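Issue: copy button drops trailing tokens. Both records pasted manually instead:
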Amino acid sequence: MSAFAQRLRGLFQRGGIGRYGHVPNVQGPPFYEARAPWWARFTWGFIAADLLVTSTMTELTWTKWTYPPEKPGAAPVQRPAWQRAGLCLGHLSIGVGLGVLLVVARSRVVRILHILPPSPGTPRQLLIVGAHRHGTRGAVVPFARTHIDPGRDETEAILRVQDVRGHWWIGLNRARLRGTAVPPAQMRDAFAAEWGMRKAAQSDFGAGGGRWKSGPVLDSWCMTPVAPRSAVDTQKYAYEHSVALSVRH
């Protein structure tokens, strides 16, 4: 198989991510599960509409594209074949490109994340099931190769796999944590606890739209407490400062 064919196969089947296929021995509810966004559920409808519009525009361009009549009532003169063929090629390129973009974007929407426990000779792994798959068929990668980044706001997150190009989108609205529906804030906390992350300070949430900061969980204990403003705050500051120092040492 040529290098180009391998890249194309990896783009659609994600074969380069890890072991890909059905995992029959998955037990219990997944760590994360959510319904795909509306556009991902109706992808094939959008593709059908895209093909209809593309074919119609191509057919009209090839058969009906003419020069403007020189005189009122004069018979229209069809444009040269090279002009019509060039515009038809443009219609086809845009239509096919949009269809491919929809299919690839749908495959990068996470529907299920299942953390597989370690077994003898096999470390802990992560099963990634995209919106284009059903059941437990997806990509299985070592958990240590994955990490979570913040999304555009507090209702989404980004999954990345080490040495793999691109990312996977995770929606936190109406998500289920181990089978239980939870709000986005609780889902974020679960990701932070599982992947060893911590949330940014409250001021960062206001300025940056709820973004997180990657890093070990213990880093949050090493943050310098806020300076005291009153006598009560002074006691609270001294206590927090002593806790921080004990954890550091």
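Record 2 (pasted manually too):
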Amino acid sequence: MHFTAILAAASVAVSGVVATPVTFDVSTDFLFGGVELSSNNHYGAPIPPWAANHKPGWYFGDNPHLFPELNCLEGLLCKILQLLPFNWLHCPAKPPPTPPPAGDGYTPTFQNLTGATQASDYMTYGLVDTVADCKAMCNSVSGCTFVNTYHDVNGKGGSTQLTCSLFSQCHDASDADNVGGQSQPDGSIDFITSSDGYCKK
């Protein structure tokens, strides 16, 4: 996607001379490291986490310095994303520092499984620090109704962050059949722990 900006010099306005506007294109490849953060590209994660060669599309949390290779949803990036159409990823509001009351708008559908949700209504996935961060991401993605958080042990380049997968439909334990088993670059095999599912009420 390209943005077109129209520039007019203040001196032209003062002098009363009518000038032809100058246009230029700015590629989002430059802004987001070549990753399109729109729904057309699963918000930067076109390959779902259960498929080979997958990688997270974004990071949302308090430790962006740990993920220089990902689009970290903070600061200037968030300001730029606010200017883009609704089908682009938008930065969520940070969840409160203390866990919200039971009425956070989500109902647990499964907890502490060793499999992650694998389904055709997959929207995107990234890395987060907390379950609350993942719910905040779902609240910021149009059409998201279900979050699955889990630890992908030996996956994600050894990161200890939670994987946060977003879906457009609610799921139960019967869909949590991604148990890992993918070979990693260091020869280890990944596996899933602490998988929790939450459906928007």
